[in-house]
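Propose amino acids for all 144 sites.
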Protein backbone atom coordinates (compact mmCIF):
# COMPACT_ATOMS: atom_id res chain seq x y z
CA UNK A 1 0.00 0.00 0.00
CA UNK A 2 1.51 3.31 -1.00
CA UNK A 3 1.18 6.62 0.83
CA UNK A 4 -1.88 7.80 -1.19
CA UNK A 5 -3.76 4.56 -0.59
CA UNK A 6 -2.91 4.69 3.09
CA UNK A 7 -4.14 8.31 3.32
CA UNK A 8 -7.36 7.38 1.46
CA UNK A 9 -7.97 4.44 3.85
CA UNK A 10 -7.41 6.68 6.88
CA UNK A 11 -9.78 9.29 5.44
CA UNK A 12 -12.41 6.61 4.77
CA UNK A 13 -12.08 5.23 8.33
CA UNK A 14 -12.37 8.75 9.77
CA UNK A 15 -15.51 9.32 7.67
CA UNK A 16 -17.06 6.00 8.88
CA UNK A 17 -16.18 6.84 12.48
CA UNK A 18 -17.79 10.28 12.18
CA UNK A 19 -20.97 8.78 10.63
CA UNK A 20 -21.13 6.14 13.37
CA UNK A 21 -20.61 8.80 16.06
CA UNK A 22 -23.38 10.97 14.55
CA UNK A 23 -25.74 7.98 14.42
CA UNK A 24 -25.10 7.25 18.13
CA UNK A 25 -25.61 10.92 19.04
CA UNK A 26 -28.92 10.97 17.09
CA UNK A 27 -30.15 7.78 18.79
CA UNK A 28 -29.22 9.20 22.18
CA UNK A 29 -31.04 12.47 21.43
CA UNK A 30 -34.14 10.53 20.32
CA UNK A 31 -34.13 8.55 23.57
CA UNK A 32 -33.78 11.75 25.61
CA UNK A 33 -36.62 13.32 23.63
CA UNK A 34 -38.88 10.27 24.11
CA UNK A 35 -38.12 10.26 27.84
CA UNK A 36 -39.05 13.93 28.08
CA UNK A 37 -42.21 13.27 26.05
CA UNK A 38 -43.11 10.37 28.38
CA UNK A 39 -42.54 12.55 31.43
CA UNK A 40 -44.63 15.35 29.93
CA UNK A 41 -47.34 12.86 29.03
CA UNK A 42 -47.37 11.52 32.59
CA UNK A 43 -47.58 15.09 33.90
CA UNK A 44 -50.46 15.79 31.50
CA UNK A 45 -52.26 12.60 32.60
CA UNK A 46 -51.86 13.58 36.25
CA UNK A 47 -53.13 17.11 35.57
CA UNK A 48 -56.13 15.68 33.70
CA UNK A 49 -56.90 13.29 36.54
CA UNK A 50 -56.67 16.10 39.11
CA UNK A 51 -58.98 18.25 36.98
CA UNK A 52 -61.52 15.40 36.76
CA UNK A 53 -61.39 14.88 40.53
CA UNK A 54 -61.81 18.61 41.15
CA UNK A 55 -64.85 18.64 38.85
CA UNK A 56 -66.34 15.67 40.69
CA UNK A 57 -65.82 17.44 44.00
CA UNK A 58 -67.51 20.61 42.69
CA UNK A 59 -70.50 18.60 41.46
CA UNK A 60 -70.73 16.33 44.53
CA UNK A 61 -73.88 16.55 46.60
CA UNK A 62 -74.17 15.43 50.18
CA UNK A 63 -77.39 13.58 50.76
CA UNK A 64 -78.47 13.91 54.35
CA UNK A 65 -80.03 10.78 55.72
CA UNK A 66 -83.08 12.56 57.07
CA UNK A 67 -83.74 14.29 53.75
CA UNK A 68 -84.19 11.19 51.59
CA UNK A 69 -87.67 9.69 51.38
CA UNK A 70 -88.17 6.97 53.97
CA UNK A 71 -89.11 3.54 52.74
CA UNK A 72 -88.06 4.31 49.16
CA UNK A 73 -84.93 3.35 47.27
CA UNK A 74 -82.53 6.25 46.87
CA UNK A 75 -78.79 6.84 46.55
CA UNK A 76 -77.14 5.18 49.53
CA UNK A 77 -79.82 2.51 49.86
CA UNK A 78 -78.94 -1.14 50.19
CA UNK A 79 -81.66 -2.93 48.29
CA UNK A 80 -82.44 -6.63 48.29
CA UNK A 81 -84.35 -7.74 45.21
CA UNK A 82 -85.65 -11.02 43.84
CA UNK A 83 -85.75 -11.83 40.15
CA UNK A 84 -89.38 -12.92 39.73
CA UNK A 85 -88.48 -15.35 36.95
CA UNK A 86 -85.36 -17.08 38.33
CA UNK A 87 -86.18 -16.42 42.03
CA UNK A 88 -82.53 -15.36 42.47
CA UNK A 89 -82.01 -12.87 45.29
CA UNK A 90 -79.46 -10.07 44.90
CA UNK A 91 -78.25 -7.16 46.99
CA UNK A 92 -77.44 -3.82 45.44
CA UNK A 93 -76.12 -0.62 46.94
CA UNK A 94 -77.27 2.39 44.95
CA UNK A 95 -74.39 4.87 44.53
CA UNK A 96 -73.42 7.78 42.33
CA UNK A 97 -71.87 7.00 38.96
CA UNK A 98 -68.31 7.66 40.15
CA UNK A 99 -68.61 5.14 43.00
CA UNK A 100 -70.15 2.32 40.98
CA UNK A 101 -68.42 -1.06 41.24
CA UNK A 102 -70.62 -3.93 40.06
CA UNK A 103 -68.18 -6.50 41.49
CA UNK A 104 -68.94 -5.13 44.96
CA UNK A 105 -72.67 -4.87 44.29
CA UNK A 106 -72.49 -1.08 43.99
CA UNK A 107 -74.59 0.08 41.06
CA UNK A 108 -74.97 3.57 39.71
CA UNK A 109 -78.21 5.45 40.12
CA UNK A 110 -77.75 6.22 36.41
CA UNK A 111 -77.62 2.56 35.35
CA UNK A 112 -80.75 0.86 34.03
CA UNK A 113 -81.14 -1.19 37.22
CA UNK A 114 -80.38 1.82 39.43
CA UNK A 115 -82.84 4.06 37.57
CA UNK A 116 -85.48 1.36 37.76
CA UNK A 117 -85.07 0.89 41.51
CA UNK A 118 -84.93 4.59 42.52
CA UNK A 119 -88.19 5.48 44.24
CA UNK A 120 -89.38 1.87 44.60
CA UNK A 121 -90.80 0.60 47.92
CA UNK A 122 -90.74 -2.83 49.55
CA UNK A 123 -93.11 -5.10 47.63
CA UNK A 124 -92.90 -3.08 44.41
CA UNK A 125 -92.10 -4.89 41.20
CA UNK A 126 -89.92 -3.04 38.71
CA UNK A 127 -89.20 -3.92 35.11
CA UNK A 128 -85.66 -3.37 33.85
CA UNK A 129 -84.72 -3.44 30.17
CA UNK A 130 -81.42 -5.31 30.12
CA UNK A 131 -79.30 -6.36 27.13
CA UNK A 132 -80.47 -9.95 27.62
CA UNK A 133 -84.11 -8.89 27.80
CA UNK A 134 -86.56 -7.64 30.39
CA UNK A 135 -85.93 -8.46 34.03
CA UNK A 136 -88.58 -8.03 36.69
CA UNK A 137 -87.35 -7.48 40.23
CA UNK A 138 -89.41 -7.50 43.37
CA UNK A 139 -88.05 -5.26 46.11
CA UNK A 140 -87.61 -7.41 49.24
CA UNK A 141 -85.96 -4.91 51.60
CA UNK A 142 -84.46 -1.42 51.73
CA UNK A 143 -81.80 -0.40 54.24
CA UNK A 144 -79.54 2.60 54.73
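Proposal:
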Amino acid sequence: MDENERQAAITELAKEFKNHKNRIINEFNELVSKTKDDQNLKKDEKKERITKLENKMRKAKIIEEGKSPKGKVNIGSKVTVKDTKTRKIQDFIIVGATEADPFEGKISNESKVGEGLIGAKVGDKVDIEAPKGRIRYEVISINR
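Residues 100 and 107 are 5 Å apart (CA to CA). Strands lie at 78-83, 89-95, 106-108, 125-130, 133-143.
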